Amino acid sequence: MSTLKNKVQLIGNVGNEPEITNLESGKKVAKFSIATNESYKDSKGEKVTNTQWHNIVAWGKIAEIVEKYVGKGKEVALEGKLTSRSYETKEGEKRYVTEVVVDEILLLGIKGENATE
Known about the structure:
By secondary structure, the chain is mostly beta strands. It is built from one helix and six strands; from the N terminus they run E-E-E-E-H-E-E. The chain has a single domain (2-38, 50-107), classed as CATH 2.40.50.140. The chain has a five-stranded mixed barrel. The radius of gyration is 17 Å and the shape is globular. It starts with 7 loop residues before the first strand and ends in a 10-residue tail after the last strand.
C-alpha cells in the first residue's frame, strides 16, 4: 500500500497545446492542462456536468511523447503524483500551484487526427 500514498489517475481532454521547454541539461519538460467531466442529475432531474481543470507536468521521455503526439482536444489517460509549489510574482504576490507530475501516459486520441496535415 505504500505506493498508494500519492497517486493520481485521470482521463480527460487536453485543454491547450502543450508548452514544451528544452532545459540546459538536455531534458524536456511539457506543461499542459486537461479537463475532466463529472455528470449528475440535480433536484429537478436535469443533467448537470461539472468540469474540473488539472495542471499537468511531464518530464524527459514522457515530455517527448507529449510533444510528438498530444494536442489540444485529444483524450489522454495519465497517472502520476500530486505536487504543490508556490512562487512570488513580480509584484511580490505569493501564488500557489497544484500540479500532477506524470509517471505514465496513455494516448486515447492522436495529434492531427482528422486533420488535413
